[in-house]
Automatic annotation (TrEMBL):
Coiled coil: none annotated. It comes from Anaerolinea thermophila (strain DSM 14523 / JCM 11388 / NBRC 100420 / UNI-1). Residues 37-194 form the Oxidoreductase molybdopterin-binding domain. PANTHER family: OXIDOREDUCTASE MOLYBDOPTERIN-BINDING DOMAIN-CONTAINING PROTEIN (PTHR43032:SF4), PROTEIN-METHIONINE-SULFOXIDE REDUCTASE (PTHR43032). Gene3D superfamilies: Oxidoreductase, molybdopterin-binding domain (3.90.420.10). This is Oxidoreductase molybdopterin-binding domain-containing protein. Transmembrane segments: none annotated. CDD domains: arch_bact_SO_family_Moco. Signal peptide: none annotated.
C-alpha cells in the first residue's frame, strides 16, 4: 500500500512539474463517479439526439444514425471540481465541428452559446467557442470501450486538457453533461444546473474558478 501511495505522489509531482496539474488538484488513478440523481435507463429504439435553437434547421438523430457519424479520438487530462485529476484519458465520439462540417448543423450568426440538455432535465452551459474546440467531444467511448452507465452511457459531453494545446480553454469536468440528449444553440448565455447552484459560470481549471 505504501508503495502505491509513494508512486502516486511521484506521478503527481511529475505532472505538476510538467505544468499539467492545475491549482488545488490531486492526481487519482481511479475514475470517481459523481453525479446528481439516478443512472437513467437506455432504450436504443426510442433514444434520440436533438439540436435546436440558433440553427437554420433543427436536427434529430436516432441512436443508429448517430453511430454512423465520423468519430474522433482525443486524449485529455480530466479535472473535476471536487479536486481530483485523471491524466491521459482516451475518448472517442463525435465533435460538434464535425456536425457543422457535414452540414448537419448550420449555425445562425446569432449563435454564441450552447446548452447541453441531458436526462432528467440536467443542463450544462458553455460558450460556442469552447464547444467548437478540440477538447470538447460528444463521447460514446472511453478507453476503447462504450461508456459505463455511471459515466454517461450512451452519450456524454466531455471536456478536458490536451497537454500540447495550452491555448484551448479548459473548464472543470462538470461542464460536460452525462447522458446527453441534445444541444441548444443560444444567442444569450443561461446558467446550467450547477451554475444555478452557485458554481462558477466559466469554470477555468487554471484560474481555480470553482464557485461563483
Amino acid at each position: 500500500m505504501f508503495d502505491q501511495i509513494r508512486k502516486r505522489k511521484q506521478e503527481e509531482e511529475a505532472m505538476r512539474a510538467a505544468g499539467r496539474l492545475p491549482p488545488g488538484q490531486a492526481l487519482t488513478q481511479k475514475f470517481p463517479v459523481l453525479h446528481y440523481g439516478p443512472v437513467p435507463t437506455f432504450n436504443p429504439e426510442t433514444w434520440d439526439f436533438r439540436v435546436w435553437g440558433e440553427v437554420e434547421q433543427p436536427l434529430r438523430l436516432t441512436w443508429e444514425e448517430f453511430n454512423q457519424l465520423p468519430k474522433t479520438r482525443v486524449t485529455m487530462d480530466l479535472h473535476c471540481v471536487t479536486k481530483w485529476s485523471k491524466f491521459d484519458t482516451v475518448w472517442e465520439g463525435v465533435s460538434v465541428r464535425t456536425l457543422i462540417e457535414l452540414g448537419l448543423v448550420r449555425l445562425k450568426p446569432t449563435a454564441r452559446f450552447v446548452m447541453q440538455h441531458a436526462e432528467y432535465g440536467f443542463t450544462a452551459n458553455l460558450p460556442l467557442e469552447v464547444v467548437l474546440q478540440e477538447n470538447f467531444l460528444l463521447a460514446t467511448h472511453y478507453d476503447g470501450k462504450p461508456l459505463d452507465p455511471e459515466h454517461g452511457y450512451p452519450l456524454r459531453g466531455v471536456i478536458g486538457f490536451i497537454p500540447d494545446r495550452p491555448d484551448l480553454k479548459t473548464p472543470y469536468l462538470w461542464k460536460g453533461a452525462k447522458w446527453l440528449r441534445g444541444l441548444e444553440f443560444m444567442a444569450q448565455d443561461r446558467p446550467g444546473f450547477w451554475e444555478m447552484a452557485g458554481y462558477h459560470n466559466d469554470a477555468d481549471v487554471w484560474k481555480e474558478e470553482r464557485y461563483g
